[in-house]
Amino acid sequence: MNAQNEDRFDAGAKVIPLKRERDEKARDEKTCHEKARDERERDEREPGRSPLEPLERGLASGLAFLRRRLAGEYEVDEFGFDPEFNSTFLLPAARALYERWFRVELSGLENLPAEGGALIVANHSGTVPMDGIMLSVAVHDHLHRDLRLLGADLIYQVPLLGHLSRKAGHTLACQADARRLLGKGELVGVFPEGFKGVGKPFNERYRLQRFGRGGFVGTALRADVPIIPCAIVGAEEIYPKIADLRPLARLLGLPYFPITPTFPLLGPAGLIPLPSKWMIRFGEPMPLDDHDASAADDPMTVFEITDHVREVVQQMLYDTLLRRGPAFF
Prior knowledge:
The chain is α/β, with parallel strands linked by helices. It folds into two domains: 8-79, no CATH class; 93-324, 3-Layer(aba) Sandwich (Glycerol-3-phosphate (1)-acyltransferase). The protein contains twelve helices and eleven strands. The strands form three sheets. It has a seven-stranded mixed beta sheet with strand order 3-11-8-4-7-5-6, with helices on both faces. The protein has a two-stranded parallel ribbon with strand order 1-2. It is globular. The model is unreliable at 1-9 and 24-31 (pLDDT under 50).
């Protein structure tokens, strides 16, 4: 599936370049999240206001959004990223989990660049990969940048899921797309463990799997951007995988079919993630200035850097896990 093809549902939308001219202005403006928070605080300060006023504002905003959609007055970039749809629908839904359910704590934000390209390399876990969604919310709400995640082919083979992923700004995990994004100064995220990390059993929690063949290192070297290690603690407990129905997984074309303490025992209710306490930590940037782009073609160099990044992320996981303490408090 070509990551550069526009979705057929966006045929009427304007296509914008990856590096929009209004980037600097956008950084100075309040995010939709901050505006909503300001409106809530204003409602609390002015108790005499009509309780219907927030509802009226929301209705008016929704109608304006619908009008722009029908008229094609919205923009998508070359990868199908729809900033308005993402900030209006996708992020608010994820933000509710981020703030209320998982109570995410963030540290090391100063290690992320306010502008320019960088590659965030994080551990992957949770049976259902919600860690990427929470990571996107963290970067958007606290750094005011859009995180462009690289996802597996399977995600984009599922029609609705693939469509929403592109709307959120994500694309296939291929080096060509990653280099184009990084070359335009985008902040890109990758999970080198892939499905082996997401689908590992609960008794192997917080033990990193193999970091693939180091493709992310080659991408960073060719794009001349730093690697930022990231540790995500909390995802391992949301769907503790205690068994795997491999015959059913093969039948459905899935990498695994998990059995958890609540699924399928509780039916649809078992799909509700457990409210574990999350912590996301960004480590210090790992510049690759000692290597030029040609090092990306040297298997030994790529292996050494890959192994070093994995060791750093693993140690960050252990440290953050100790700092968090109990999983659900």
